[in-house]
């Protein structure tokens, strides 16, 4: 098995145009790594750049500078279509608002994720939904499911293509405490069972406390943070 980290960021920078003019630096990360199979929590206040960082790692947006090595490829150097294909095969993404396709059933949502990854395995899709407790609701559409059940579909979808890395952006943010605890336990256990590394973003200290390794974005992102304070 490779000892190369599943994620390595080097000199990653990202800035946006400010409404009043000029550029606002959001990210300036000198180096950050996540080992294969490791589970890491990334803590930070609202608006600190956590989602921007996840989007860069997933290849949804490109950094202004730097290298973003994910599962053996520098995502920052890939074209848009290449990034989409790479993400589908190697990265699972759990969104706070789920992003399920409303016109499709739970099973179809998983199968479509598999199609983007290049191979549809309906037996695996059904197995994943059974593992998250939705074996009896394969043919339910999102509107027919509770909020907690929709989150479980989103978790199953993130693992559909056996990714090397799972990114979770405030995955418990829309859930009450009971369902949040259950969702977090599900994410941790399924990632561990599949061997996927997990990078989970949260500002909830109850969530962060479940992780052996916690990274504070304000520390990781020192120069951007210093610029924001200046």
Question: What does the model show?
Answer:
This protein has 230 residues and is an alpha/beta fold. It has a single domain (7-229), classed as 3-Layer(aba) Sandwich (Rossmann fold). Helix content is 38%, strand content 24%. It has nine helices and nine strands. It has helices spanning 50-58, 80-90, 106-117, 122-131, 147-158, 177-194, 205-208, 217-220, 222-229, and strands at residues 7-17, 23-34, 39-43, 65-70, 73-74, 91-94, 165-169, 197-202, 213-216. Strands 6-7-8-3-9 form a five-stranded parallel sheet, with helices on both faces. A four-stranded antiparallel sheet has the order 2-1-4-5. A hairpin with a 5-residue loop joins strand 1 (7-17) and strand 2 (23-34). Helix 3 (106-117) packs parallel to helix 5 (147-158). The longest helix is centred in the last third of the chain and has 18 residues, at 177-194. The termini are far apart. Residues 225-230 have low confidence and may be disordered.
